[in-house]
Amino acid sequence: MEAEVLIVGAGPVGLTLAVELARYGVTVRIVDKAAQRSDKSKALAVWSRTLELLDRSGCAATLVAAGKQVAAANIVAGGKTIGRVELGGVKSPHPYALMLPQSETERLLEAHLNGLGVQVERGLKLVRFTDRADSVTATLRHYDGSEEKIQSQWLVGCDGAHSAVRDGMRMVFTGDTPPCTWVLAEVRLQGLRNPGEIEVGWHADGMLAIFPIAGERYQVIADMGPSQTAEGQPDPALSDVQALLDKRGRGGVRASEPGWLTKFRVNERKVENYRRGHVFLAGDAAHVYSPAGAQGMNTGMQDAFNLAWKLALVCRGICQEEPLLDGYSSERSEVGEQVLKTTGRIASLALVHGDLKQTMRNYIASLVFGFSPARSAMADTISEVSIEYPHSPMNVQGSKFFQHPAAGERVPMREGEAPIGAGDRPRFVLCADISEVTARSAAAVLVGLYGQLAEETVRAPFGEGGMWLVRPDGYVALVTRAGEWDDVAAYLDRLARRR
Asked: Across residues 181-208, what is the average pLDDT?
């Protein structure tokens, strides 16, 4: 076996997966058909939940140092602010949106991967693959036309919206392509009302979104209305961008020093199942969204976090395949469906046409944004800290104990504690009161029996009268009453590989 996992695609998703697997000691090959890494800004926002997960692998600090922290997003209509979402109140070590060009995110992730001893192999295109009973045989074509075969235990397609892996799996990419062309421009902007903050404008002609990059550099995204194709249409000029800012913005904003100017079409599509046999999909290979919510890249990276620890436990022979690997598809497919609906709603709101409809939308939105709980909920949704797995097959609510955080929920970050899942082994963490002798003894027995699966140190519980078993990605696997050690043992025993 040349590698335990072959990853096709070296964008943010493939790199995140490779970093996670490599730090867990899984042998990885990661290939990309492009000869070199992209130098385009593309996806800018790295949200709070993604940064929390990057903390576990030691990547977050480097990205944070290179990016720009943005604490608020403003919704503007008719030249007035009708809504403002503050991210500073998000309960996370990273209560902000990190603005970092995708090219930089990829560069830093690749540098971290290189430090783990793995190099991206560029100029290799996946031609075909065969999924066998216990492995996958893939044919890769080099730039010079030569081909090589590689055998791996698992294959993961992180190769984008036009995924060769998805095509080889014969997965249906369900959804549609709205008949709308979008413009993306990277420019210098002066005269902004709230420089350094995200601004989304709702206008009769369409949406205008402004994202800070660094200094006076910004990314501007706007829809250009119904169009059957972006093919054959010229890329936007600086004058086009200025006209959009003048008509849809607050006014008084001047664009200059254009960098990247382009147009694109949006797809809203998703596969139903992210796994078939020994082959998986992650990121845009599994789902693509409207750019209105800026959720696509982060959702894909979180696919990778979810899959990596599960694959590592199976590759290491610690756990059996089920329910771990099927749990990846059911958990992330449900999240993907939610994101598809959320970004679709955001786009629908932003692209409302007609004076009466727009007036009603703006009035209702201003009322909703006037409520603090609504603003907090929006901040949690945007930052993705609200993502959870309530229907996961891996959840167990033991002994009818329903104190929060419940099974499937993200555990709160506690100051002074290392992130759950940090280190070179993916292990579950038990959070329980072991002050009594009997409790200490029971915890010791559990760790002794399931030491490869559970962290040696027992952490403090999240409330009185309960015990929590937390997954390596920081979500609750089991919550039960204090002293119900059999529940914990039964859960770990269900995962453990039978010897």
From this structure: 90
Q: DSSP letters along 222-278, please?
A: EEEEE-S-STTPPPPPHHHHHHHHHHHSSS--EEES---EEEEE--EEE-S-SEETT
pLDDT of 499 > 50? The answer is no
Q: Half-sphere exposure (CA, 13 Å, Cβ side) for 201?
A: 26
Range of the domain at 447: 396-495
Nearest CA to 121 among 205, 3, 259, 212?
3
Residues 6+ apart with CB under 8 A from 425: 24, 25, 452
pLDDT digits (tens, 9 = 90+) for 29-71: 999 999 999 888 889 999 999 999 999 999 999 999 999 999 9
> Is residue 355 domain-resident?
no
The rounded distance, in Å, linking the Cα atoms of 177 and 226 is: 11
Location of structure tokens 């995110």: 105
The residue among 350, 383, 413 that closes a domain is 350
For residue 128, what are its two tokens?
Answer: 């075909």
Q: Is 381 part of a structural domain of the chain?
A: no
One domain, residues 425 and 480: yes
- Give the model's pLDDT for residue 1: 62
Q: Decide: 28 and 4 in contact? Cβ < 8 Å.
A: yes
Confidence (pLDDT) at 232: 57
d(CA 31, CA 156): 11
How many structural domains comprise the chain? Answer: 3
The structure tokens 């909703």 sit at: 368
Q: How far apart are CA 173 and CA 288, in angstroms?
A: 9
The Cα–Cα gap between 394 and 425 comes to 19
Phi (first) and psi of residue 148, to 5 degrees: -140, 150
Q: Which amino acid, 44?
A: L
pLDDT tens-digit map of 79-116 = 888 889 999 999 999 999 999 999 999 999 999 999 99
Give the largest Cα separation in the chain, rounded.
75
* Number of Cβ atoms within 10 Å of the Cβ of 192: 19
Q: Which residues pair with 281 in a beta bridge?
A: 157
Whether 478 and 408 map to the same domain: the answer is yes
Distances (CA, A) of 419 to 35, 122, 411, 413, 442: 36, 33, 11, 8, 24
In this structure, the answer to whether residues 106 and 232 fall within a common structural domain is no
The residues pairing with 429 across neighbouring beta strands, listed in sequence order, are 470
Cβ atoms within 10 A of the Cβ of 147, count? 12
446 domain residue, yes or no: yes
> CATH number of the domain that 13 lies in?
3.50.50.60
Total-model pTM: 0.94
Mean pLDDT lowest among 128-142, 318-332, 335-349: 335-349
**295 and 246 housed in the same domain:** no
Q: Name the burial class of residue 375, with classes exposed (0-12), middle (13-18) and buried (19+) by CB atoms within 10 angstroms of its CB.
A: middle
- State the Cα–Cα distance between residues 299 and 176, nearest whole angstrom: 19
**What are the respective helix, strand and coil percentages of the chain, to the nearest 5?**
35, 30, 40
3 state DSSP class of 321:
coil
The token pair that represents 136 in the structure block? 């996958």
